[in-house]
Structures are given as C-alpha cells and as structure tokens.
Amino acid sequence: MEYVVGITLALFFCAAAAGLGLDRERAFYPAVAIAVASYYVAFAVVDGRNEVMLYEVIIAAVFIVAAVAGFKRSPWFAVVALGGHGVMDAFHHHLVHNTGVPQVWPGFCMTFDVTAAVLVAWVMLARTRREPERRARLSLRHGELP
User: Fold this and answer.
1) How far apart are CA 68 and CA 75, in angstroms?
2) Which domain holds residue 38?
3) Cα dihedral sign for 97, 2, 41, 69?
4) pTM over cut 0.90
5) Does 133 map to a domain?
6) How many domains does the chain have?
7) Residue 88 domain-assigned?
8) Could you tell me if 11 and 119 are in contact, meaning their C-beta atoms sit under 8 angstroms apart?
9) Residue 146 resides in a domain
C-alpha cells in the first residue's frame, strides 16, 4: 500500500505544483529535495542514539549539497538528488539501523522520490523543448526577426 500511496502522492504533488506554477520558482524542487533529505534526521531523533543521528546527518548532507547545487548551478542536480534519495531509500536499512523509521517509510519515500524525480525531469525536458518556440513568439510580438 505504501508504494501506491507514494506514487499517487507524487503524481498529485507534481501536478499541483505545475498547475499552480509553484515549480517555476528556481528554489522549489531544491527545497523539496532538502525537505525529503531531512526526514531520516527527524526519525533519528525518535531513535535517540547519537551515532544514528550522526550517520543520518551525513547522509542528508550529501542530498542537501546536491539540492543546493540544483539551486545554484542547474536544476538537474535537484532532480538527481530527489531520485538518488529514492534509490537510497531502498537500501537505507543497510546503511543505518534507525529504529525511529516507520516500517512503511522506505517504500513510500522511495516511490514518492523516484516518481517525483521522473515527473520533474519530464516537465523540465518538455519546457526545454518548448522554449525556442516561446522565444520566437515573443520576438515576433516585439517586432524582432526570428
């Protein structure tokens, strides 16, 4: 069930973000990737062990750095961070034994992250393909030659 909910929520989330224009802000998906990376740190608080917190902070830092690169350099870094976090979810339990992680979380988070990354990449590619047409229309409106 967690897989169905993860996919469904990602579809709804990405559709709503695109439909409302929220995803046109450069910081939107990097912020989503940072939020996604922080959950295991919150679960480490529940676990209560310092070593678990340290490991979770280190793992989160990798994805946060990628998300910041997505904001500063290229949004593709944020897409990779989001998808990469989903891949990490699949084997997180081999990296850290965090007893604060709910049983359904890895499956839910994996499907949400990977689905969202695929959808964001698809939207970004579609917008990139439409950009030359949009620029041509704008230049014609302003009397410029194409």
Assistant:
1) 9
2) 2-141
3) positive
4) no
5) yes
6) 1
7) yes
8) yes
9) no
Count the neighbouring beta carbons within 10 Å of the beta carbon of residue 13.
Answer: 17
Q: Please write the tens of the pLDDT for every residue from 24-33.
A: 888 999 999 9
pLDDT, tens digit, 9 for 90 and up, residues 105-146: 999 999 999 999 999 999 889 888 766 665 555 555 655 545
Secondary structure (H, E, C), 36-102: HHHHHHHHHHHHCCHHHHHHHHHHHHHHHHHHHHHHHCCHHHHHHHHHHHHHHHHHHHHHCCCCCCC
Among residues 11, 9, 21, the alpha carbon closest in space to that of 122 is found at: 11
Angle at 11 between CA 88 and CA 67, to 5 degrees: 45
**Contact by Cβ (8 Å): 110, 6:** yes
111 within some domain: yes
User: CA 32 to CA 26: how far, in whole Å?
Assistant: 11
Q: Please report, to the nearest 10 degrees, the dihedral formed by the alpha carbons of residues 95, 97, 99, 101 taken in order.
A: 10
